[in-house]
Design goal:
The protein is an alpha/beta fold and 371 residues long. It folds into 2 domains: 5-237, Aspartate Aminotransferase, domain 2; 240-366, Alpha-Beta Complex (Aspartate Aminotransferase, domain 1), CATH 3.90.1150.10. 37% of the residues lie in helices and 15% in strands. The protein has 12 helices and 15 strands. The strands form 3 sheets. The protein has an 8-stranded mixed beta sheet with strand order 1-9-8-5-4-2-3-14, with helices on both faces. Strands 10-12-15-13 form a 4-stranded antiparallel beta sheet. A 3-stranded antiparallel beta sheet has the order 7-6-11, with no helix packed on it. The protein is globular. The two termini are 32 Å apart. It binds pyridoxal-5'-phosphate (PLP). The site of pyridoxal-5'-phosphate has 14 residues, from helix 3.
Length: 371
Amino acid sequence: MGGHEMRFIEEAFDTNWIAPLGPNVENFEKEVADYVGIDGAVALSSGTAAIHMALKLIGIEPGDLIFCSSLTFAATCNPIVYEGGKPVFIDSEPQNMNMSPKALEKAFKYYQGKGQLPKAVLVVHLYGQVADMDAIEEICNKYQVPIIEDAAEALGATYKGRYAGTMGDYGIFSFNGNKIITTSGGGMLVSRNKEALKKALFWSTQSRDKARHYEHSELGFNYRMSNVLAGIGRGQLLVLKERLEKKKKIFETYQWALAGIEDIEMAKICDYGESNYWLSTMFLKQDSTINVIDIIEALEKENIEARPIWKPMHNQPFFEEYRFFSHNEVGISVSEEAFERGICLPSDTKMTIEEQMRVISIIRNLFAYGM
Ligand SMILES: *Cc1c(COP(=O)(O)O)cnc(C)c1O
């Protein structure tokens, strides 16, 4: 927590607004929308719920295809399957592991040949870096297919001056406990289309028609964020700027301290925008004698948690049946290779410089580089 949350929570308690309704919810929506510079927002119970609502808004129906980044968390593509849609997984490009415009174009060409275009392209901004949106937009405009941005990990990141989440037809954020700011659990749907947001609000509050009694002409969902949790979010938003700076510093410290180790490459940061540096990630070079698990285990021995990067969705048992389009013409795909060689390093903003130096010295020692 950032120190400002209790003020908003107490306000909710004092005014007895404990429901998924109340001034914190509306203010949080307005404050996030203002921060990223978009017309409107709907606060929901999770980022996953926000993706689900975005898919419903683009009119997903059973059997529809959704082109989706493969290198991501399962929450990105699960809602496609909730609606009976079929994800088509798109590989990463090598510069920052986000959706490859080349692989995307391949998928479009293949399915155009079959006379079946996707209902939407669901693009993820991985670990806080924005995908190459100009290239992706150009392809989507050509085929007239809407874009949904999964900016769950990228609140505050920018691309050529535009904020993550504001470039597509719909954008989503997550306020899960591990994200750059949190409401303990929560999410948000943002869009320029205010009519669509009204519809999402209707669906996410059980689709209650205007009537004195309970009347329902559509299927509903219980997806609204509560006023208490929105209070946490409002407090957190006040420290977002500070966190962005802290996260960047953490990344730069790793970059500086690991620079001498030949087998290690920190994630490349694209200069077309500003990352929010949600997680500092590094990659081992192909011929490194030390592998990802060696590093994770060495840290684990010291009670420090690190993890491999996301395992691509097209390699997940549950999603294996769906098609995948690789960036490469031959050999292993970019996302599979990233999974084999990538590590998410401890990146919490509470981490002190001493704690980070401990992480660094364990890694340096493993490669027989002292401090
Ligand atoms: C965290 C995350 C989500 C889901 O957010 P929840 O709020 O946990 O439902 C979706 N996509 C990505 C890429 C995420 O990292």
